[in-house]
Amino acid sequence: MARTAVVTGGTRGLGRAISLALRDSGCKVAATYHSNAAAAREIQEASGIAVYQWDVADFDACADGLAQVTQQLGPVDILVNNAGITADATFHKMSKEQWWHVMRTNLGSLFNMTRLVIEGMRERRFGRIVNISSINGRKGQIGQSNYAAAKAGILGFSKALALENAKHGITVNVIAPGYCDTAMVAALRPKVLDAIVAGIPVGRLGTPEDIARVVAFLADDAAGFITGATFDINGGQYLA
């Protein structure tokens, strides 16, 4: 029987590739999005993946959205917490709005989404949770104290959750991507982009598919002995 997977921020960039990889592995996929309806329509029309709009930073919106997913696709077996934003500024110039907007979306959403599916996973004695962190949550980055703090927080959250649920057939793992060829990275100035690539030992940016393949593996039934782990997929740019 096909398992139901939810991918937050699942209609663009890394999330889009993850949604497609899970669909290709045989899952029924629900891809969530917040505001870009055009991208949501594109992936739905191109792939048949179901799309749902809600704000993952809002607990009640997550509850309503997941209830709809469960009704239409079935109980959630696989959760990929991928949604994230940036609001960059050096800390001495950062506003409280910039801090909390990033923290609520990038870290608070993990509570919202995971809390709403974890009890069902425990009852069914199966679950796969994959949380998307970042290379900058591992090493820090100038102008991203909010983003780096949230992405680093994902590591501790995931380890604790993995320990709590290991005996219930639930695995919890983290992927910390490096710089990938997405629209956000492509928008960088050429000199900045060249400097980034020069610092990657394998000599290229990652692709969304590089990340998606590992997510699909960790979501598979066969990955049941892997939990509490962090996978640094960054071309050797940062060796933790």
Explained architecture:
- InterPro entries: Acetoacetyl-CoA_reductase, KR_dom, NAD(P)-bd_dom_sf, Sc_DH/Rdtase_CS, SDR, SDR_fam.
- By secondary structure, the protein is of the alpha/beta class.
- 49% of the residues lie in helices and 16% in strands.
- It has one domain (4-232): NAD(P)-binding Rossmann-like Domain (Rossmann fold, 3-Layer(aba) Sandwich).
- It has nine helices and seven strands, in the order βαβαβαβαβααβαααβ.
- It has a seven-stranded parallel beta sheet with strand order 3-2-1-4-5-6-7, sandwiched between helices.
- The longest helix is centred in the middle third of the chain and has 29 residues, at 96-124.
- The radius of gyration is 17 Å and the shape is globular.
Topology:
Blueprint: E1 4-7, H1 13-24, E2 28-33, H2 37-47, E3 50-53, H3 59-73, E4 76-81, H4 96-124, E5 127-132, H5 135-139, H6 145-165, E6 170-177, H7 183-186, H8 190-198, H9 208-219, E7 230-233
Parallel strand pairs: 1-2, 1-4, 2-3, 4-5, 5-6, 6-7
Pfam family, one: adh_short_C2
GO molecular function, one term: acetoacetyl-CoA reductase activity
Family: Belongs to the short-chain dehydrogenases/reductases (SDR) family.
Strand order of the largest sheet: 3-2-1-4-5-6-7
H and E order: EHEHEHEHEHHEHHHE
What is the fourth-level CATH superfamily? NAD(P)-binding Rossmann-like Domain
- Any idea what the shape is? globular
Query: Any low-confidence stretches, pLDDT <50, length ≥5?
Result: none
Q: What's the CATH C level?
A: Alpha Beta
Query: CATH topology, which one?
Result: Rossmann fold
Query: What's the overall average pLDDT, rounded?
Result: 97
What helical percentage do the residues reach? 40-55%
The largest sheet, given as strand count, sense and whether it forms a barrel, is: 7 strands, parallel
Q: In the CATH hierarchy, what is the architecture at level 2?
A: 3-Layer(aba) Sandwich
The total count of strands amounts to 7
Q: Report strand %.
A: 15-25%
Content-based structural category: alpha/beta
Specify Rg, calculated over alpha carbons: 17 Å
Give the total of domains: 1
- N-C termini distance: 38 Å
Q: List the total number of helices.
A: 9
